[in-house]
Amino acid sequence: MRSDVRRTMLFVSLCLAAFVFVETGVSGDDITARARNLHFSSIVVDTHADTTQRFIDGDFDLGPRNSKGSIDIPRMKQGGLGAIFFSIWIPSKITGPIAVKRALEQIEAVREQVRKHSQDLVFAKTAAGVREAREQGKIALLMGVEGGHMIHSDLGVLRKFAELGVRYMTLTHSGNCEWADSSTDRPVHNGLTDFGKDVIREMNRLGLMVDVSHVSDKTFRDVLSVSKAPIIASHSNCRALCDHPRNMSDEMIRALAAKGGVIQINYHVGFLSQAFRSAERTHPEINQSIAVEVQKRCGEKEGCQLIEGDRITREYVEQGKLPRVDWTKIIEHIDHAVKVAGIDHVGLGSDFDGANMPFGMEDATSLPKITEALLWKGYSEDDVKKILGENTLRLMEDVERISRELNTTKRN
Amino acid sequence: MRSARAIFLFAVIFLLATNTLVRSVPADDLAVRAHKLQFSSIVIDTHDDTTQRFFSKAGFDLGKRNSDGAIDIPRMREGGMNGIFFSIWIDGHIMGPTAIQKALDQIDAVRENVAKYPKEIVMARTAEDVRRAHAQGKIAALMGVEGGHMLGNDIRMVRIFSDLGVRYMTLSHFYNTEWSDSSTDKPAHNGLTDFGKEIVREMNRQGMLVDISHVSDKTFYDALEISKAPLIASHSSCRALCDHVRDMSDDMIKALAAKGGVIQINYEKSFIDQGYKDASAKATGGVVEIISQLKKTCGDDEECFEREGAKLEKRLTDEGKLPHVSWERIIDHIDHAVKLVGADHVGLGSDFDGANMPEGMEDASKLPKITEALLRKGYSEGDIRKILGENTLRIMEQAEKVSKELQAQP
Asked: Which residue in the set B97, B107, B152 is minimally distant from A160, CB to CB?
């Protein structure tokens, strides 16, 4: 080829390459813009946050933008969060009527926040309530009781919790309760006792979602066989990626999905990252020293303990004592769960204000990153909407429908 | 002129006969009017202890006509009762978190049992709910917590109970609470403590009526001073006719009425009949004493309580130690209260299924007798409707209004 033709062809190729490169750059901006549109036009549901503990501490209000913690009204709005389940939680070792009373105190604290901020928040008890909240331009607040010890083995108390607006119950927290084994305690009941099975049946009748986060694998299998309704794992991850007993094995995720349930991905670094989990296990003294520091800063204030625990963990990471976990690990877990369970069975259950957040997902304002990352991965907009909240809303609707059917059958 | 005389005689006889007939019609006419009035009115009973029967080991069916007790749906229907406050009650010695959980169990029992008969009876919270139920031909079921000990000494429980549908709270039962004195206990707080006053304020905010049955006189006057809404005496009678501490003095009734409140007359024999009260105190030491005795025999077994209580009652009456008490004493109390403060401040709070009923008022089916007796006494239909239920609805509406106003404030 003549050199001037070769030069011209080279020049044209370079121009074409440049053009293609520029076009790709425009597509990148396009995805970001699409992601923003998609995120803020979807109903984004977070099925687990421990912010309630901060209400109980007494020095925190949802209204103003906070410099600590992950959740408040301005940051929820900035992050496009449409609905959030606040957990009602007390330590597993507190049992009996006191546990019932403290649960009531927390339920009332959540209800009081809604009353105080009625222009921004609305209480929701159903999927329709969540959709209605969106129509009104408000954030829907819901509640989940995190630990069956809070009903003190009394189905009447369970019914009153439901009446006060609780929409799911996590059967145990980190310790066993009187009728169910936890994944982080010695097995005592071999899953669910007979009464535990009665609890599941009553939850089905009341339209309360049965939450299997925290429970032992046997408890999970017992629930599957007793529950007539699909099940939620309100804040659990994939054991295949991080071998914490709190996480679900692929087999468990498949079984959950086969029954119509949803695994809601947790952002806690110890459940996201094998490296972090291994470091914690190898050096238990690290968690001990964090606990000591937390106690110094917070005393008995639970909300403070959770927030400061998160901050101190960050400090340790920055000092190189613990591995750095990037927020993109969340996407890995979502992606793995979708591959195992299918697109209809994955959602978001942050554990905000109750755990140690990864870098880049410190608070609700970072939520749109998840939508963008999924779009980049090639997820369709409909699929992203499902993960963001539609799967959870479908699950709620299924549980409500089954409750109605069971009540009609009972009356007839 | 034989035919004319015959006609005249016939006419006289005829006139005499029709005159007689006309004179006998007013009596029948009154019974008919009473029946019509009873069954077209909203008839609310502000205190029934039937809740305890829901825990019966033998099983109690609210929907069946029962041969014992005073309340069930068939007999309420027969008596025209279409509004009932089920009392949420546990022994006043139980306090703290246990008391709260047991109260939840009782609230749950009411809801679960009412839910069994959705065509007949429905839960209600507000005066409007009661009116709506009446329009639908259903009985409105409400709840009152009988004793502030069930708050577990925690003011937040006022909101919880209110959220769960409780529309009044009797500040104390037989024994003092941590913050209020009872009329049947030794004074410890000189009425309401500061915390007790906070509780009254919170009740106002939640639209929960402050009930001063059972409380000591000082507690009554303290509550009256603090409360921004009218008070209810959900099941109390008149001390002027029967000097029981559970009853209200004329001064108290006047003070209650001056603030818009209502005294709902209790049918318990020892609260309405002086002779019975005195004899009962002599024979058994009085209501609180009997209950303590029965507790020793029966413990927590409420049915044992009822059985043994009834047996004791019958034995003492048969032995002549206790006089018979006619249901008409109820009318005396209503009448006394109306003469004192007017028809706007009196209502009915039977204490059915929680007390000893006078003869002729054994159960809800006998209620129409009250309406008929009041008509015979010359009460207007309007005033009777007030006593039967309109007064109670009015104070509920006022409590709701006060609640809205207080919650609107910053």
From this structure: B107
Query: By mean pLDDT, which of A161-170, B126-135, B183-192, B300-309 is the weakest?
Result: B300-309
| Dihedral (Cα; A292, A297, A299, A301), 10-degree rounding | -120
CB B223 within 8 A of CB B182: no
Of B54, B88, B101, which to mutate for an interface test with A (greatest number of A Cβ within 10 Å)? B101
CA distance B124 to B142: 5
Q: How confident is the model at residue B194 (pLDDT cuts 50, 70, 90)?
A: very high
For chain A, the straight-line distance linking the first and the last C-alpha, in angstroms and rounded, comes to 90
Q: What is the DSSP-derived secondary structure letter of residue A65?
A: P
Average pLDDT on A390-411 reads 93
Minimal CA separation from A247 to chain B, in Å: 34
State whether B108 and A160 contact (CB < 8 Å). Answer: yes
- 3 state DSSP class of B94: coil
| Cα dist from A156 to A80, A161, A202, A369, whole Å | 37, 9, 10, 43
A128-175 pLDDT, tens digit each: 999 999 999 999 999 999 999 999 999 999 999 999 999 999 999 999
- Please report, for chain A, the start and end positions of each structural domain, with discontinuous segments joined by +: 42-411
Question: Which of A98, A108, A159 is opposite residue B156, by nearest beta carbon?
Answer: A108
Type and span of the H or E element at B157: helix B156-163
Shared domain check, B52 and B188:
yes
Residues in chain B with CB shorter than 8 Å from the CB of A160 are 104, 107-108, 164
Cβ contact A316:A229 at 8 Å: no
Is residue B310 located within the same domain as residue B187?
A: no
Residue A313 pLDDT > 70, yes or no?
Answer: yes
Contact between chains at B157 and A152 (C-beta distance less than 8 A) = no
Spatial separation of the C-alpha atoms in residues B268 and A32, rounded to whole Å: 76
Range of the domain at B116: 29-273+328-408
Assigned architecture for domain A42-411? Alpha-Beta Barrel (3.20)
pLDDT digits (tens, 9 = 90+) for B120-175: 999 999 999 999 999 999 999 999 999 999 999 999 999 999 999 999 999 999 99
Chain A residues inside the 8 Å CB shell of B118:
411
What is the ipTM, given to two decimal places?
A: 0.88
Give the mutation candidate from A104, A145, A158 for the B interface (greatest B CB count, under 10 A). A104
Model pTM? Answer: 0.90
**DSSP state letters, B15-56:** HHHHHHHHHHHHHHHHHHHHHHHHHHS--EEEEE-GGGGGG-
